[in-house]
Design a protein that fits this description.
It holds the Pfam family MFS_1. The chain folds into 2 domains: 398 residues, Growth Hormone, Chain: A; 48 residues. 75% of the residues lie in helices and 0% in strands. α1 packs antiparallel against α4 and α3 runs antiparallel to α7.
Amino acid sequence: MPDVRIASSQGKWILLTTVLGSSMALLDSTVVNVALPRIGRDLDANLAALQWTVNAYMLTLAGLILLGGSLGDRYGRRKVFVIGVVWFAGASLLCGLAPSAGVLVAARALQGVGGALLTPGSLALIQASFHADDRGRAVGLWSGFGGIGAAVGPFLGGWLVDGPGWRWVFLLNVPLALLCAPIAVRHVPESADGRTHGRFDVLGAVLGALALALVTYALIEARQGSLVVAVTAVAGLAAGVAFVQVEKRSPDPMMPLDVFKSRQFTAVNLVTLCVYAAFSGFFFLTALQLQVAVGWSPLAAGTALLPTTVLMLLFSARSGALADQIGPRIPLTAGPLLCAAGMLLMLRVGPGASYVLDVLPAVLVLGAGMVTLVAPLTATVLASVDTARAGLASGINNAAARAAGLIAVAALPLLAGMGPDAYLSASAFDDAFHRAMLLCAGALVVGSGVAFATVRPLPPGCRRPECRTHGAVTAPPLEGQRARRRIA
């Protein structure tokens, strides 16, 4: 049984280690968007290369995050976490030194592999190390400090891009890893799940990632209208079908399909796909819009989006408590509508826009909507399956959100009519950005409708989220691996 107390020196070292590790991934997911215009100009990259700069990371992270948690359970959570930290730092160094857009994209894909190892491991280390009486407080501190890191990310990213340069957005991870890894080795106890069994579902992981990669390529390159794009799209769909068949027949699947027999679980994941596709598209394009069309500096653009994270940090726990009292249906219906209203308010943002009059109202309404829906969404996911599979359900929901973001970043510029050099023209990008915000708002309205039609009250005594405070905007909270025995 874990017995580390939070007041002990070892407990403090464990918290520091896990916060540093998770902050690396959170910082990276929030700061890179701010750096994209400078990256594009410096490396002479078109819009497709900028999309791949974001998507290469999300692709490997979404495709491997479930497998990463299982590796920790089997071979040791500390060991896999440290490997993830070192891997992430090495890939970040490659990103920072990349001489071309192609090298940067490849390094970002490697970075996502490291993220898939360290992201589930940070919370799993807390759950496996701390005494049961202290675990809730430890998780609260971890999620709170991690949220602060997410809040600092856009500001820090903008300052780095304006100052030392965009390469330092990636190079910053190296000293963090040099601090994190030795502390983990010295102060964090090793733990593993002795009950894990069977083979790893490597084929399932490969097919899932391949399907996402091929579909993403087809969407990003669809402007060419070539035979290669059509063949790639068909191959991506075929890989997706093969993934489903492998998961159906595997004795130890990465994603057991029978979990979707729960109608509530399936419905909430559909809501997740809608809302996180909209969120990812919004944050990707807004960071560009504020710099390309409005003319702000990277620092100003990054800081402009800070209120969404601050609102999440301050009120996500209270939103979860309210949803416990009134049920998830109202929050999951109203939250996406509020977010849609925030994105419609972004239609006012263009050349000469005022932050106080135009940007801030939109960001505040969007943040209020995110506060309303994120905590109830996580609680509903956990409550829709057996308690023993709650961790698995959370992992699938987190991966679904990241996959939705991946597809949105690939598809939105195409659907909005952005050309390869759109980000170099203020007027062209502004027109396409407004069309994209309408599409994002439409996806949120669909998500709201699905929630209203399908979400039901939570059963009494169901498992509640351990991460009550949440500041990340790229995916719902990822519960630890303690309950995820089935996929190992």
